[in-house]
Amino acid sequence: MTRITETSDQWWKTAVIYCLDVETFLDSDGDGVGDIAGLVERIDYLAELGVTCLWLMPFYPTPDRDDGYDVMDFYGVDQRLGNHGDVVELIRTAKDRGMRVITDLLINHTSDQHPWFKASRKSKDNPFRDYYVWRSDTPPDTSDMAVFPDKEDGIWTYDERTEEWYLHHFYSHQPDLNVANPKVRDEIMKVIGFWLELGIDGFRVDAVPFFLEDVGMSGQDADAMAEPHDHLKNIRAFLSRRRGDAILLGEVNVPHEEQVKYFADGQQLHMMFDFVTMQKLYLSLARADAGPLTEALLARPQIPEDCQWATFVRNHDELTLDKLTEEERQEVFAAFGPEERMQLYGRGLKRRVPPMVDGDPRRVRLVYSLLFSLPGTPSLFYGEEIGMGEDLEAEGRMAVRTPMQWSPEKNGGFSTAPPSKLVARPVPDGYGPQFVNAWDQMRDHDSLWNFVRHLVQIYRSHPELGRGSFQVLDQPHPEVLAHCVTWEDRIVVAVHNLSGDAHAVPLRLDIPGGSVLESLLSREEHETDDDGAVQLDLDGYGYRWFHVHPPHKLRLP
Ligand code: GLC
Question: What does pTM read for this prediction?
Answer without folding.
Answer: 0.97
